[in-house]
Amino acid sequence: MLRIVDFGPDIHDKESKKADQYISHGSASERREILDGIKGFSIFDADDVEDLERNCTSMIERGGKGKFRVKSIDISRLRMKYFFGHGYDYGGGKGSEKFFNPKDISPIPEWIYESIIEKMEKTGIVDKNWINSVVINDYEPGGFIVQHQDPPHLFERPIFILTLFSDSALSFGCNLRFDRTVEPVEVTASDPILRLPMQRGIITSFEGMCMNEIKHCVRPVDTKERRVAIILRRICEDGPVLEPLTNGESLRNFDKKLHKKVQKRCEKMLASKILPYERSFHLVEVKRETEKSKAAPKEKVKEPWRKQPKPKKESKKRKEKLKKKGVGTFELDRPIEKDENDKQWNFGDSPERVSKRVEWSSDDEQKEKNKRIGKTGDMADLIYDFHHQDKDLRDMDIKTIERKVHMQKSRKQRGREFRDKINSKFGFKTSVANSDSDSSDSSDSSEEVRPKKTRISKFTF
Ligand SMILES: O=C(O)CCC(=O)C(=O)O
Ligand SMILES: [Fe+2]
């Protein structure tokens, strides 16, 4: 179901009694002009949000093991960035940003397609196969991103941002300041023209003036807790592309030093406490999902940005110029299909490995099976089945259904949930009863939760 978020009640002007850090300092018309290109969508319920956050966690575990391609992870102060599909090099900014070669960037994980992109397509937020690039920013408390415009020569508009793990805000017309006389460097911000709340579980879309004429940033003061932003975009097909550094190598095989650094940061992020989810946003309208709207979502929401953009024609002269600099462009007629190479390298697996995994997440085997039999494998399916069964089967109690749902999860997931329960019951730190959070490489090919082997040392007197 598609529901539109009303930002109005959370945008506080100078007359408001809210604390200074929540205030937008622009005039009403300045705020309106920016807000005109911004829309918030609520398409996930609390369970979806929990699932998405769990998937993020497994993704970070993989990142820590160095399984993404060499340019998929970027570390900066209080923030980690994961590029999927396409990533780019800042190259000093101001229009000189260039795409890394797709060989050096991991493909978009399957769970992002299934749980986010497909849902956005189904609800009519975006056209099918439009999104082909995903960036995930993982901010520590106090994390920030300096004022910038998403490079217009690399990304089409609109851009979409999904916020997870905690609420935050995006500030427009605001500059970060760095006081380098103190250690660590202190980061503050000027008064924003507009402070836009970015609520957990909400997808916000940006286009027009807010993306093309004014800069945006995330202020440290708005990152009170660890937050993840998933940025979903479409690349410009004529964007400049760098030569590949590798032929699809994963980080752990390519740069051991950087891998160690990444591993440390991932472990730090994984140790963050996950806050309980609370819905804190207002909705302007609730659209009931009728059969009609399901069949023809395009008729319902008419937005100019939903029109398929016409591919820009690249001038011959510019192509020649870029070629001379060793920079190519994509020759893409979307959608991106994963080729054999992508599938093979999805886990950072070595090409020699006999059993190549196609899917990304450890639960995907079960999902694949469910897909074949036309099921999603969730509670709704089981309840549906329950009501369409013979009477004696229908008498099956809810405990049995819950157990069935539980048993549909992978052994690894069940083990993880069990350990989480033990940890929270006895107040252990996660590391105490967590035996599969190590960096063992074999954990990808096997979903078994094996006890740690203890080497028996020689007995000496
Ligand atoms: O974290 C956010 O919400 C914004 C991130 C952003 O603007 C970017 O990565 O380009
Ligand atoms: Fe941005």
Automatic annotation (TrEMBL):
Residues 288-306, 331-343, 350-368 have a biased composition (Basic and acidic residues). Residues 307-326, 452-461 have a biased composition (Basic residues). Residues 288-374, 429-461 are annotated as: Disordered. InterPro entries: AlkB-like_sf, ALKBH5, Oxoglu/Fe-dep_dioxygenase_dom. It comes from the Eukaryota. SUPFAM superfamilies: Clavaminate synthase-like. Transmembrane segments: none annotated. Keywords: Dioxygenase, Iron, Metal-binding, Oxidoreductase. Residues 130-236 form the Fe2OG dioxygenase domain. Its cofactor is Fe(2+). Belongs to the iron/ascorbate-dependent oxidoreductase family. This is Oidioi.mRNA.OKI2018_I69.chr2.g6090.t1.cds. The lineage of its organism: Eukaryota, Metazoa, Chordata, Tunicata, Appendicularia.
